[in-house]
Each structure stands twice: as structure tokens, then as C-alpha cells.
């Protein structure tokens, strides 16, 4: 099976492209095939609309929290509110989230989905620092328009399957809270290099065989990218490969997951669910 792992950014360019690892899953072995870096959204859209069969794991929040959707009065289906967002300009979307936060009490300004709470992810409303809100704004409507199947959210082309992944979650399972990347050159360290090399070594020596059901064959060069984007794309591919192997069991989604919010696919997300 063709597996795609995509590390997304809301503003792709030469300095920070969207990064895609393509791999092939044969049995329990995930074989790296190619690395692509896209400096605009065109190649991302073309890939999602390309013929299958393939499954893609993408590092961006596909949805917003039920609390936020209910409070702001957006449509009560994933396709409905993502379609609504697609009619907004980037400025309008930012203003909408800023206005929502402005007069709310501290601790009640940005809400997390159930899967965010379970995996330690931040709110998909966040616009500053790590701009997950903008990643949602740029990514989710393109996923909707692709017509692919998004398990639990959209019944589309069954030969093209897209799932939300979170590479930082898998990295923490391998090296704990140890820092392994940074986009700013001045904050890139030799310890981060060693952490990335450790993550890749663990993937290739069977450390995730018992949890994610795969062993990885990939070039060591993926660990040399100081931004971590190339390694993150590979981690997304590992999570997508795990979900593919559980396709007859709902791709690793819990039976009671919220179809308004979506879910991050990873065995850790299931194990920490109460």
C-alpha cells in the first residue's frame, strides 16, 4: 500500500515548504520511497486529488472543538462548518477567532478537542505561536474539496484515505520530552540532532513494532534536517501505516469518537482515552 506522510504548514514557501514522505507498506515493513517539498498549495491539492490507492497521514487539525462550534453557531456537521470556513478570507477567519476570544474569561478562550486533550495537543483555535488555527483554515477545506475518504468525517473515494496525524506524539513516545527540532537557526542544537537520529534509529530497529505494527527502512538523511519537517513527515507515515493495518477496525478511531471534532490516529490516543 502506498503511504503518504505530510508535514503541513499554513504558509508554504522556500524556507518552510509542505513536506511529504512517500513510502510503501509491504507486510509490516514501511519502505521509504521519496521525499517531496512543496512551496505552494498546488502540489498538495494535486496529490490529494490524485488517483489511489493510497492513504495519507497529515499533521494539521482537521476540525474544531464541539464547544467552539456550538458557542459560535457554525453548522453541526464537519463538512458543514469546514465548508462555511472555506467561504471566508484568511483575514475574516482570523478576525472571527479573535472576536470570539476577546471577551471570554481566562481559560475559556481557546478550546481543545477530546483528541487534543488525550494527546497533549494545543487548541486548533490558536493563531499565535504555533498557528494551528491557520493550519486548519488552509488545510481542512482542501481536504474536504479533495473528495477523498476521511474516516468518520467524510465518505469519499475509498481508494484515497486521509487521516489526521500528530508526529510530536510519536516522537514523545520514543525520546520523551527531549527537544528534537526548531525552525530558528539560532535555536538549533547538537542535542536536537542526536534526538532526531535516535528517533530514526528507534523506528528502524523495531522499537515501534509492538505499538505501531511496523518497522521502517529509511535514509539517515531524514534526521539531518534541523527543522524536523522531514522526520515529522516520516512519523506521519508511520501513524498512517498503523491506521491502514486497522482499516477493518475503523482505522484506529475509537467507536465513540466525536464526528464533529475528528480524531488523531495513534495507538497512544486510544490507550489514554478514559
From TrEMBL:
Top-level taxon of origin: Bacteria
Pfam families: DUF429
Species the sequence originates in: OM182 bacterium MED-G24
UniProt xrefs under InterPro entries: DUF429
Protein name, as recorded: DUF429 domain-containing protein
Amino acid at each position: 500500500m502506498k503511504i503518504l506522510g505530510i508535514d503541513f504548514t499554513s504558509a508554504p514557501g522556500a524556507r518552510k515548504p509542505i513536506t511529504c514522505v512517500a513510502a510503501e507498506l509491504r507486510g509490516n515493513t514501511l519502505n521509504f520511497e521519496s521525499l517531496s517539498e512543496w512551496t505552494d498549495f498546488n502540489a498538495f491539492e494535486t496529490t490529494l486529488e490524485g488517483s489511489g490507492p493510497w492513504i495519507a497521514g497529515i499533521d494539521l487539525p482537521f476540525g474544531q472543538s464541539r464547544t467552539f462550534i456550538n458557542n459560535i453557531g457554525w453548522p453541526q456537521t464537519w463538512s458543514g462548518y469546514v465548508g462555511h470556513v472555506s467561504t471566508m478570507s484568511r483575514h475574516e477567519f482570523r478576525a472571527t477567532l479573535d472576536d470570539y476570544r476577546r471577551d471570554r474569561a481566562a481559560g475559556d478562550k481557546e478550546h481543545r478537542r477530546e483528541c487534543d486533550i488525550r494527546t497533549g495537543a494545543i487548541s486548533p483555535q490558536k493563531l499565535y505561536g504555533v498557528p494551528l488555527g491557520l493550519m486548519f483554515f488552509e488545510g481542512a477545506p482542501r481536504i474536504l474539496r479533495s473528495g477523498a475518504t476521511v474516516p468518520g468525517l467524510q465518505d469519499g473515494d475509498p481508494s484515497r484515505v486521509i487521516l489526521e496525524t500528530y508526529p510530536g506524539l510519536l516522537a514523545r513516545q520514543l525520546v520523551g520530552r527531549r527537544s528534537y527540532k526548531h525552525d530558528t537557526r539560532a535555536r538549533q542544537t547538537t542535542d536536537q540532532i542526536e534526538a532526531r537520529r535516535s528517533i530514526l534509529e528507534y523506528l528502524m530497529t523495531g522499537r515501534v513494532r509492538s505499538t505501531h505494527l511496523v518497522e521502517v527502512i529509511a535514509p539517515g538523511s531524514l534526521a539531518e534536517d534541523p527543522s524536523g519537517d522531514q522526520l515529522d513527515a516520516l512519523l506521519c507515515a508511520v501513524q498512517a501505516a498503523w491506521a491502514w493495518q486497522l482499516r477493518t477496525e475503523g482505522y484506529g478511531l475509537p467507536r465513540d469518537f466525536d464526528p464533529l471534532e475528528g480524531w488523531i490516529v495513534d495507538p497512544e490516543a486510544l490507550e489514554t482515552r478514559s
